[in-house]
Amino acid sequence: MSIRFLTAQLAQQIDEELMNAVGAFSLDQLMELAGLACAQALSTVYSKERYPKVLVCCGPGNQGGDGLVAARHLGMFGYKPTVYMPKPGSKDIYQRLQKQCINMDIPIIPPSASIEELTRALRSSNVILDAIFGFSFKPPVRAPFDDALEFISASRLPIVSVDIPSGWDVEFGNEEGVGLNPDVLISLTAPKPGVQHFRGRHFLGGRFVPKAMQEKFKLNLPEYPGFDQIVELPRNYRM
């Protein structure tokens, strides 16, 4: 039986159930687990010996929170992350995650940074972690994210995208042609329909969905090996 692909509506429903009285998870817990899985996926493909400098690009929503958690874990793993926020989040949880990165001396490039500063950061990076947009994104890409995606694409650096590549529609993929084209994708909980035509290395993260919920939503998730937080899916995985 193949893994169930999640529409934006179904992904939102599962998140809500994970955080209600039945699932009993907090948002902090889910971000921590998702961010850890993202950091592990990046480190699996791009070793710190060859790719030590990671530019972690964070949007203002929960996806950006996952990115901030991943940046902290990457720092713990021995990488040298830098966080870039085209537009920082305003929620308390986002502010706390940002403070945790600051406490680890992880540089943060603010939205007010000049084009020259962002260009220097890209030139000094070895790999990008894309955590800008989540599964609720709908085209078109608006300012300031349009410029950010253009700069990231123009860098020609390898990209690891979280859940769905930024700029892609969760249902229809990169039909607009303005989204990032990552080399690695880490789908959270389960893949989304829009990534069916993704051609790079594809990992699944989200080793937190209870068996009862997996069965309720007929997710058909694969077994995670050992104590890993990720499992690699076959290339060109389809619905």
TrEMBL record:
Residues 11-221 form the YjeF N-terminal domain. K(+) binds at Q63, D130, S166. Its cofactor is K(+). It catalyses: (6R)-NADHX = (6S)-NADHX; (6R)-NADPHX = (6S)-NADPHX. Its main location: cytoplasm. (6S)-NADPHX binds at N62, Q63, G64, G65, D66, G134, F135, S136, F137, K138, P139, P140, D163. It comes from the Eukaryota. Binds 1 potassium ion per subunit. The keyword Cell division does not apply. Keywords: Cytoplasm, Isomerase, Metal-binding, Mitochondrion, NAD, NADP, Nucleotide-binding, Potassium. It is found in: Cytoplasm; Mitochondrion. Its EC number is 5.1.99.6. GO terms for molecular function: metal ion binding; NAD(P)HX epimerase activity; nucleotide binding. Pfam families: YjeF_N (PF03853). PROSITE patterns: YJEF_N (PS51385). GO terms for cellular component: mitochondrion. InterPro entries: YjeF_N_dom, YjeF_N_dom_sf, YJEFN_prot_NAXE-like. Catalyzes the epimerization of the S- and R-forms of NAD(P)HX, a damaged form of NAD(P)H that is a result of enzymatic or heat-dependent hydration. This is a prerequisite for the S-specific NAD(P)H-hydrate dehydratase to allow the repair of both epimers of NAD(P)HX. HAMAP family: NADHX_epimerase. Belongs to the NnrE/AIBP family. NCBIfam families: yjeF_nterm (TIGR00197). This is NAD(P)H-hydrate epimerase. The lineage of its organism: Eukaryota, Fungi, Dikarya, Basidiomycota, Agaricomycotina.
